[in-house]
Amino acid sequence: MPLRTGRIPRRLPALIAGIGLALLASAGAKPAPDAADTEARFIERLLGRMTLEEKLGQLNQPPGIGNDTGPKARAAGEDQIRDGMVGSILGMHGVAEVCPLQRIAVEQSRLGIPLLFGSDVIHGFRTIFPQPLGESAAFDPVASERAARIAAIEASAHGVHWTYAPMVDIARDPRWGRVAEGSGEDPYLGSALAAARVRGFQGGDLARDDTILATAKHFVAYGAAEAGRDYNTTDMSERTLREVYLPPFKAAVDAGARTVMAAFNALNGTPMHVNRPLIEGVLRKEWGFDGIVVSDYTGLMEVLRHGAAADATEAAVRGIDAGVDIDMVSGFYVGDLPAAVRAGKVPVAEVDAAVRRVLRAKYDLGLFRDPYRYCDAKREQARTLTPAFRRASREIARESMVLLRNEGGVLPLAKSLKTIAVIGPLADDPAAMNGNWAGDARAADAISPLQGIRDALPGARVLHAKGAQVLGDDESGFDEALSIARQADATVLFLGEDPGMSGEAASRTSLDLPGVQEKLALAVQATGKPVVLVLFNGRPLTLGALPERMPAILEAWFPGTEGGHAIADVLFGDYNPAGRLPMTFPRNVGQVPIYYAHLPTGRPPDAREKYTSKYIDAPWTPQYPFGHGLSYTTFHYDALSLLHQRMGAGDIQVAEVTVSNRGARAGDEVVQLYLRDDVASVSRPVRMLRGFRRIHLLPGESRTLRFELRPEDLAFHDADMRWRVEPGHFTVYAGGSSDATLQAGFDVESPGTEP
Fold first, then answer.
1. Is 156 within the bounds of a domain?
2. Which of 557, 591, 625 is a domain's end point?
3. Which pLDDT value is given to residue 385?
4. 296 a catalytic residue
5. Of 295, 628, 680, 703, which is most buried with the most CB atoms under 10 A?
6. CA distance 427 to 422
7. Closest Cα to residue 448, out of 558, 525, 574?
8. 679 close to 726: Cβ distance less than 8 angstroms
9. Do the beta carbons of residue 31 and residue 42 sit within 8 Å?
10. Cα end-to-end span (Å), the chain
């Protein structure tokens, strides 16, 4: 009689363990590695038992089984799982939801291969951290790793194995709404944070029960969508691709990212889902990546709309040939590849390679030894929204806030204020604090700015008026807002975007404050009382007259669960802000794209010369440059020195700079080091970030920081696309933003070499 198809116990008696998997397999047992198995032996043995359809099932991630699925679709999905036609499931979380489906896969399908459950854990699961662009403003990889680690602990406790994060797209056009999900405009900063977030999600060992697979997305150049319009095409030189858009993906791969997601866009005419030279060529062969490549939602289906495939079969054949292992949602692999494989259009070896990568991920997560290891309801409760997680949310939110302006030292506000007016459509909106793509966030868990101020000033009179909506031209609330502003000792305005106005499918042609919010701010400022503007947004905004009229402006992004408390900490001086802009803020949308690391022009802008590169109706400079951010204290830079005045192309340069806190408050400073290759065989950016360090200094304290510039920091792709360091003169800049003026120079004298 065949063995029953129930789950094999985790600890088999020694005698049965010695029999080995082969004998059990012949009797129809479920796959579980024995003590003598290596990963490779186990996977090859399992692969040998699979039919072609079951193999392709492992590459299928269907729609219609998630948390919000109707009963008919759910039943159909369960039947697919029983038939071995599902390898992973999208958008599911919660032990009560996930584990019944895992039980179907393990106990009711022929081979009992466990499922992977993937979800968008972008900037927290239940405990929400600042949206990635805001978190990036902390310039603190340790904080980013910490946030991702907590997100993984919570998500894994809720049955999630896999997150579609981090998004590592470089983005230099703030019209594109998905800038909210990334690290901004700079590949050096983006690379450091990509690696940190991968380490946070995956931990030190995937076999632990609090780790999840990380996904570097979207491969590649999605952030360069034409006109800032989501899903749009991209076109760029190979040099730009390799020096700007690919480095964060390389950093994520080097940090151990187990999955990569293909991008929606076409690049130079080839849709990324069928771009074999980049996926198989660069990602796999050049970089050695051997993890899973997953399609984006309906990405393979969209190859037809790109005009790069005539039908589903051709799209599926091109997709798997390009190296896309898992088909998210379209169903093309299970529906159309079996016949194509049998007809010789796709080698079986190509399918097997993709299946191995999927099985390896499941093996490394420990799912073959215990498919229910993520199904612990007690752990789910114990690891959700803990006091420690909330503290971390508050701390990282504070780190991310950028003081854009503080004329006359309006901030910090005194805690002795008797009456304070709290005005704006986002002042009492806890849900907005979570931003978009907020995992399993609950509005009831989040702290609004109004609540944060009330908690910080329990003895003060706190007046509140909405004043206006985020959108629309209704000014009927102005009178109430102005009335309370006149009664108050100080006013704090909370303005910005609705969370849905940034993120996916949220491109904008205007970057202005929506609706009548700017008009409301100017009316409140005209009362003559001290006014502070706090901004909520997932992208750089153009602020019109406000940078000149508002005495104090604090960029809070969408700060997360503890956002209201973190804002109050900054407003009242319990925390000295030190965030820095990870994207340039333009003066108006006509300046876009605008970024600090641009190439020089033969006619650099000069206000005194007409025929130079500038505008006739606005300055050419940004409103706030990359790396900008103020403090409640004053930092001074001095004594920038270089170890070598002349050096060889393979040598390591050492730059040292002394930073002093000359103010009366302790605070953090983000020390930034930039490099310019002054003369090269091809034009190089005017400056490039090559180091940063967030440090804490007490009043009167000085510290000398040491930065190493390695050959790869000096290298670039020359006219023949060789990656090399060329001889010539280099300039180093050190300071608190990309406008740093303290500089020193050195020469590379030996012949150019590859680093």
1. no
2. 591
3. 98
4. yes
5. 295
6. 7
7. 558
8. no
9. yes
10. 65
- The per-residue pLDDT for 66 is 62
Residue 65 lies in a domain: yes
Beta bridge partners of 423: 465, 493
Q: Cβ distance 478 to 523 under 8 Å?
A: yes
pLDDT in tens, 329-338: 999 999 999 9
Average pLDDT over every residue of 229-252: 98
| Cα–Cα distance for residue pair 132/537, rounded to 1 Å | 12
Summarize pLDDT for 495-548 with one digit per residue, the tens: 999 999 999 999 999 999 999 999 999 999 999 999 999 999 999 999 999 999
323 has a pLDDT exceeding 50: yes
- DSSP code of residue 658: E
User: For the chain, what is the domain count?
Assistant: 4
Rounded CA separation 44/671 (Å):
51
For residue 473, give both structure tokens. Answer: 């031209």
Q: Please say if the pLDDT value at position 239 is more than 60.
A: yes
Is position 607 within any domain? no
Burial group, residue 697, by CB count within 10 angstroms (0-12, 13-18, 19+):
buried
* Nearest Cα to Cα of residue 33 among 334, 368, 268: 368
Burial of residue 418 (number of CB atoms within 10 Å: 0-12, 13-18, 19+): exposed
Each residue's pLDDT tens digit, 348-369: 999 999 999 999 999 999 999 9
Q: Give the whole-angstrom CA distance, residue 371 versus residue 363.
A: 10
Catalytic residue (one of 296, 325, 336, 498):
296
**CA pair distance 345, 342, nearest whole angstrom:** 8
Look at residue 714 and tell me if it is in a domain.
yes
3-state SS string for 514-568: CCCHHHHHHHHHCCCCCEEEEEECCCCCECCCHHHHCCEEEECCCCCCCHHHHHH
> Residues of the chain with pLDDT > 70: what percent?
95
Tokens 């051997």 correspond to: 290
Cβ neighbors of 455 (< 8 A, separation 6 or more) are 447, 564, 565, 568
Q: Percent of the chain having pLDDT more than 90?
A: 92
Structure confidence at residue 753 as a pLDDT band (50, 70, 90):
confident
Dihedral over alpha carbons 70, 71, 74, 80 (to 10 degrees): -140
Q: Per the structure block, which two tokens stand in for 435?
A: 């931003």
- pLDDT digits 0-9 by tens, 181-205: 999 999 999 999 999 999 999 999 9
pLDDT, one tens digit per residue, over 672-690 is: 999 999 999 999 999 999 9
Other C-beta atoms lying within 10 Å of the C-beta of residue 521: 28
541-570 average pLDDT score: 98
Please give the structure tokens belonging to residue 76: 């159909």
Which residue range forms the structural domain that includes residue 304? Answer: 264-346
Q: Are residues 320 and 371 located together in one domain of the fold?
A: no
221 has pLDDT over 60: yes
Q: Are residues 547 and 432 in the same domain?
A: yes
Cα–Cα distance between 534 and 555 in angstroms, integer? 6
DSSP code, position 412:
S
Give phi and psi for 163, each to the nearest 5. -110, 145
Contact by Cβ (8 Å): 549, 598: no
